[in-house]
Here is the input.
Amino acid sequence: HAVTQFTWRYEALNVLLWALGLLDDLPMPNAICDVALMARTIDRCAELGAAARLRAPGELLDTLDLHYRLHWRSRQCELDGQPMPADLDPGVILERHFALNWLVHFEDADWDEVDTPT
Here is the structure.
């Protein structure tokens, strides 16, 4: 169980790399991230580090708002016994919501204590 939970953190890392501008886009959360691309990006972090620039607050907040809403919808579908729309992946949504909440200092929580209420 712990290993499975840890591997989901790739999705959070994907958001962090995007937020730093090291990945161009953050596609809809309907599939797990490209782990090989992330590994290549991390391998190049030393050279890319100088180019890293945190995205504008408005862009981060808009992305958080989208993922908050998608997470709410995901939980509502689960409660209602309904399928997720548009083949969205609830696990990807949760991890993205987690990372985005951390980025905006939601409740000033440390990484391991970030909450994702909907």
About this structure: The CA atoms of residues 20 and 117 lie 24 Å apart. The chain has a mean pLDDT of 92.
